[in-house]
Design brief:
Layout lengths: L3 E11 L24 E4 L5 E5 L6 H21 L2 E4 L17 H10 L10 E7 L3 H12 L2 H8 L4 E2 L2 E2 L5 H6 L5 E2 L7 H13 L10 E2 L1 E3 L5 E8 L4 H16 L9 H15 L4 E3 L6 E3 H18 L3 H14 L2 H23 L20
Parallel strand pairs: 8-9
Antiparallel strand pairs: 1-3, 1-4, 1-5, 2-3, 5-11, 6-7, 10-11, 12-13
């Protein structure tokens, strides 16, 4: 069974203001790999931290790893009177987050300049194992037109500077400012992919291939297609739902798709970021504008054989039913803030990284990968 892996980014937020705060000195050194698998690493800003699963084959294994990892960082956040928040952007900000000490991050910060000041963004990245180079490129081409549907389903960053941004995914709008962001071009083969990436490096748009900000790309570290379109998610259950969708999409070789152009897909990306599941999106098979929910249903029908083969169909359908009943992460965040202001929103965010009981997680060692 093809494996997948999940990378989740979190912001440490002050439990009262919900603005980013730097992790206390030594926090990363006290967090390491759990006996159940996965690891916790530093991220671009000192207010961020990342959880990574080991390669897994089942939803159960992914859920177990993410739940333990979220509990571990939730315990450390609580100890610092903070919340480890699974949200694409913070509710409030001081625009003073520092870059994590690292030669690589120093280089990225110098390249981004002023953009770093409010680049407090958290994403969910899903790796789907595809061992053949050419098949990875073909899978990337199939996926690209469906990226707006995936974004609409998982938008989870409605706030900016303590107010409503009007967007379901403000994180996506911030990411749009980076070179090589949003929709990747169509590539005829693996050599064309590599040549295009090298051109971006040659012109100075990116420092290296690992700095690509496309919403889907080929991983430089693993034999995987990496979907990066998702905001960080409120719960482990939400994150696994996105991962199972990703795996089935990548593995469905007859997924309906046509080249509606980067501009067409990006237009749908913008409306998905703006309106979430209330958006009108371009059908990636026909180019016709349709309601997001209708396209989500068409996507589900197209990948149903893969979901059944992977034994994921019930979980994904349950995830769709939850979204219809409770809304996306952005919907839930807005509802919490409307019901009880920042304190109610803090409860929602804290619930996604509940500390283990008893609250005494094992301490291990941290690694620092290149993002």
């Amino acid at each position: 069974m093809p494996r997948f892996g999940i990378e989740e980014e979190f912001l440490f937020l002050d439990e009262h203001s919900l603005a980013p705060v730097s992790l206390a000195a030594g926090t990363r050194e006290r967090i390491t790999r759990l006996s159940t698998g996965g690891e916790v690493t530093q991220e671009y800003l000192t207010s961020q931290i990342e959880c990574l699963t080991e390669p897994v084959s089942t939803a159960e294994a992914a859920t177990e790893q993410l739940s333990h990892l979220r509990g571990l960082i939730g315990w450390h956040a609580g100890d610092q009177h903070a919340i480890a928040a699974g949200t694409g952007t913070p509710f409030a900000t001081t625009r003073s987050s520092a870059v994590s000490p690292s030669p690589h991050y120093d280089k990225v910060a110098a390249h981004l300049g002023h953009l770093t000041r409010d680049h407090e963004v958290n994403g969910l990245h899903v790796h789907v194992e595809v061992t053949d180079d050419e098949e990875r490129v073909r899978a990337l081409d199939r996926v690209r037109g469906w990226l707006p549907v995936l974004l609409a389903l998982t938008g989870n960053s409605p706030f900016v500077h303590g107010g409503d941004s009007g967007f379901a995914s403000w994180r996506s709008i911030l990411i749009r400012r980076l070179p090589s962001s949003w929709t990747p071009p169509h590539f005829r083969d693996y050599d064309a992919y590599r040549a295009d990436v090298q051109r971006l490096i040659d012109v100075g748009a990116i420092a290296d291939a690992a700095s690509l900000s496309w919403s889907a790309r080929l991983s430089e570290r693993y034999p995987t297609v990496e979907l990066r379109v998702f905001d960080a998610q409120l719960s482990a259950q939400d994150a696994v739902f996105a991962a199972l969708l990703s795996r089935a999409i990548v593995l469905t070789d007859d997924l309906p798709h046509a080249d509606i152009g980067v501009d067409g897909i990006d237009a749908s990306m913008w409306t998905a970021a703006r309106h979430g599941m209330a958006a009108r999106l371009l059908d990636p098979a026909t180019g016709k504008a349709e309601d997001a929910w209708l396209l989500a249903d068409r996507l589900l029908a197209a990948i149903a054989p893969a979901l059944r083969e992977l034994d994921d169909e019930d979980r994904v359908r349950d995830g769709i039913a939850r979204l219809r009943a409770s809304g996306t992460g952005a919907d839930r965040q807005r509802r919490a803030a409307a019901d009880g202001g920042p304190s109610k929103l803090a409860e929602l965010l804290r619930a996604g990284t509940p500390p283990p009981l008893p609250a005494d997680p094992p301490g291990l060692t941290v690694s620092t990968p290149t993002p």
